[in-house]
Write a structure and sequence with these properties.
By secondary structure, the chain is α/β, with parallel strands linked by helices. It is built from 17 helices and 22 strands. A hairpin with a 5-residue loop joins strand 1 and strand 2.
Length: 707
């Protein structure tokens, strides 16, 4: 991991040169490049097989300590044997722990020096952004001198680098280890796979493990966190978000991350990679993740995650770059005051995520975090942001989803010149948030979600051609034409959500059709942008839009409260790349027959969700329909008595969810004599819930695998 710290600091220095606002640094460009070159030398030395072995040994020892309660005898023997083999190959003998401690001390010195240097760079950037041009010149000269001093300190440490013993070629050594620890020793095999990851993939996996086993946000949210935390190399002319997404997809391909189909775009870290990553975090103090608010946070911790805090936030002696707080049931006033103190001392903070804290306001100290790039305050009671928010000139992401019932953004948000992602919504009514006119001035904005497009905002959207994700709520006839005309200009748009304005009468809680009389207007005049991958339509449709059938790039479609009289799948089943389809009250008919799911239809669909209060009969699925379906969810189909004939031929199904369905349907499907169990007995897991019964049939995947 030590070489990861070197690489991260190099990325930081290079990003300083890329930033246009730091043109004042041109005079010290040579000093920066000279330090980067010296760090190449350090990285080359730390890349020696000897340090790879040291890291593997630390990881294995930490894993043994952390996993003792759940580690089976076989797994423990594997780790102990692995450590002995590492010592044997490197020729370490005698006082083994003392010898390894010598190398660890030297690595810690390098790491500590680079941590301080990284903080110094952040301090400098914050300082010069507030200075006059004349003062900036003096500070820049001091910065150049300090860069030279950092280089000298690194050189001096390198002059004292330890003499390495026998160091085999890494590829040969790994081949030897794999021959000794084959498929019969899965723990070691997984560890070797982890050790071979590039630096950015290792760091990305660690961040995934810093949260709950199933990351509670979307893949896109995790991408934004990785970018803000500096774990993605910045290159001129490239979007870091694309690189972060590519890293996550590579981890999925390697089996180190798993996509949860039922929770769209969420990720989980499977065993034993989860436990192995935790052992790295503990050994390196890179990321401290705890469920205990009273836990002592070491001063070396750069990233801190406090999960399910009861009602307090611990004080911290460290200078974290990332702070994640997930409250169990809100935070007390004492914790809010503690948060104020933490923020006052956390001037180097880059990522701040506060979830379910139920804060009524953010402290003004938030405006002092000039290095902040990610601010998430979700499930709160905020109804406004402090005026000091306009000071956050480096902020890239502002996520205030699920805030208080009344919320309106002030003009201060227009000062956030680097903002790339703005996510908002409210939990009541239409959930829209009004943004100030002039929002199009935010020329780097890629994500804009939860907005109301009336009052001239619809026209502004047409200028924001850099947008990739757009969610508009409370769409109505008075601005629909302007909105659609603007959206059609957004040629880079990949995700689009359109939620209709509900009529006042449909707020009646006694009505189950929340959007029954609210028509999504003017869709016949709309033509989707060519790169669109995700489309969400909420509101009544007079007829199925014909342009839906031409969306060859579409992978995800939500149709909510469409209340169509015609069969929507007539068009949808021919979409070549559709993977996720949710139909919530999309079809108001009482009967679905075999033409809904024809042979060869939905060639790539993996997840299908159907919700309908009207549905009484689902008669048949043609054989060879739904050839890739992994999960089928039937929600709130309370009148449905039988599942379709032909479901038994959908052999790819792994999960069947039956929520709020008729008790007779559950009895018919029961493995204990149910007459229609033959339709579902091939499905590994069936989860059911009726008015009187709930449970599951099959084997529920364990949250922690035996190790």
């Amino acid at each position: 991991m030590a070489v990861c710290f070197v690489t991260l600091f190099q990325w930081r220095l290079n990003s300083v040169l890329i930033l246009q606002e730091n043109e004042i640094l041109f005079g010290v460009k040579d000093q920066i490049l000279s330090l980067v070159s010296k760090l190449d030398e350090v990285g080359s030395f730390l890349g020696n097989t000897f340090f790879w072995i040291l890291h593997a040994r630390e990881m294995a020892e930490s894993f043994l300590t952390l996993s003792e309660p759940v580690l089976e005898k076989k797994g423990k023997e594997q780790m102990v044997s692995f450590i002995r083999k590492l010592d044997e190959v490197t020729g370490v003998s005698g006082d083994v722990e003392r010898i390894w401690a010598h190398y660890k001390t030297w690595v810690s010195e390098i790491r500590g020096t680079l941590r301080k240097a990284d903080d110094y760079v952040d301090d400098f950037i914050i300082k010069v952004c507030e200075q006059t041009e004349q003062d900036q010149k003096g500070s820049t000269a001091e910065f150049g001198s300090e860069i030279e001093n950092i280089k000298s300190r690194v050189s001096e440490i390198m002059n004292r680098r330890p003499q390495l013993g026998f160091s085999p070629v890494l590829e040969d050594f790994q081949k030897l280890l794999r021959s000794k620890f084959d498929e019969g020793t899965p723990l070691v095999s997984c560890m070797l796979s982890y050790m071979n990851l590039p630096y950015d993939l290792k760091l990305s996996l660690l961040f995934c493990c810093a949260f709950r086993r199933v990351y509670p946000k979307t893949k896109a949210d995790l991408v934004r966190v990785l970018v803000a935390a500096g774990l993605v190399q910045e290159k001129s002319g490239e979007l870091m978000e694309d690189k972060a997404q590519e890293n996550l997809e590579r981890l999925v391909d390697l089996g180190m991350l798993e996509e949860e189909v039922s929770i769209l775009n969420s990720l989980s870290v499977p065993s034993p990679y989860y436990e192995l990553s935790l052992s790295v975090m503990k050994a390196e103090y890179f990321f401290i993740s705890t469920a205990n608010s009273d836990c002592i946070i070491p001063p070396t911790a750069r990233h801190v995650s406090i999960l399910e805090a009861a009602n307090t936030i611990t004080g911290m002696n460290s200078l974290p770059h990332s702070l994640f707080v997930s409250a169990k049931d809100g935070l007390s006033k004492v914790s809010s005051d503690c948060l104020r103190n933490v923020l006052h001392n956390a001037k180097l903070l880059r990522v701040l995520n506060l979830e379910n804290t139920k804060l009524k306001n953010l402290p003004d100290e938030i405006g002092q975090l000039l290095n902040l790039k990610y601010l998430g305050v979700t499930h709160s009671r905020l109804n406004e942001l402090p005026e000091s928010i306009s000071n956050l000139r480096n902020l890239q992401t502002l996520d205030i989803c699920c805030s208080r019932y009344e919320f309106e953004l002030s003009n201060g948000v227009l000062n956030l010149a680097q903002l790339r992602h703005l996510k908002m919504n409210r939990p009541m009514n239409d959930g829209e948030v009004r943004v100030p006119q002039g929002i199009s001035r935010l020329r780097y904005l890629q994500t804009l979600e939860g907005i109301y497009a009336g009052g001239g905002i619809a026209e502004e959207l047409g200028i924001m051609t850099q947008l990739r994700s757009l969610e508009v709520r409370r769409v109505s006839e008075d601005h629909a034409d302007e909105l659609y005309f603007s959206v059609m200009k957004l040629t880079r748009l990949q995700n689009l959500s359109l939620f209709v304005e509900r009529e006042r009468e449909s707020y009646d809680s006694s009505s189950s059709l929340k959007y029954g009389n609210s028509i999504l207007p003017c869709l016949e005049s709309f033509s989707p942008p060519p790169l669109l991958q995700t489309l969400k339509l909420k509101g009544r449709l007079i007829e199925m839009p014909l342009w839906l059938g031409s969306m060859e790039n579409l992978t995800t479609l939500y149709m909510s409260y469409s209340h169509l009289s015609e069969n929507p799948t007539t068009i949808l089943q021919f979409l070549p790349n559709l993977k996720y389809l949710q139909m919530e009250e999309a079809y108001k008919g009482r009967r679905m027959e075999k033409e809904f799911f024809r042979a060869g239809g939905f060639p790539k669909l993996e997840y299908l969700e159907i919700s309908s209060l009207n549905l009484v009969e689902w008669t048949e699925i043609e054989e060879e329909a739904l050839p890739c379906l992994k999960e089928l969810s039937i929600y709130y189909c309370m009148e449905l008595m039988v599942l379709p004939e032909g479901l038994q031929h959908v052999t790819t199904l792994q999960i069947l969810n039956l929520w709020n369905v008729h008790e007779d349907l559950i009895r018919r499907l029961s493995p204990n004599g149910g007459p229609e169990n033959y339709k579902i007995k091939h499905i590994p897991l069936v989860i059911y819930s009726g008015r009187m019964s709930h449970g599951f049939w099959g084997e529920r995947p364990p949250r922690v695998t035996n190790l």
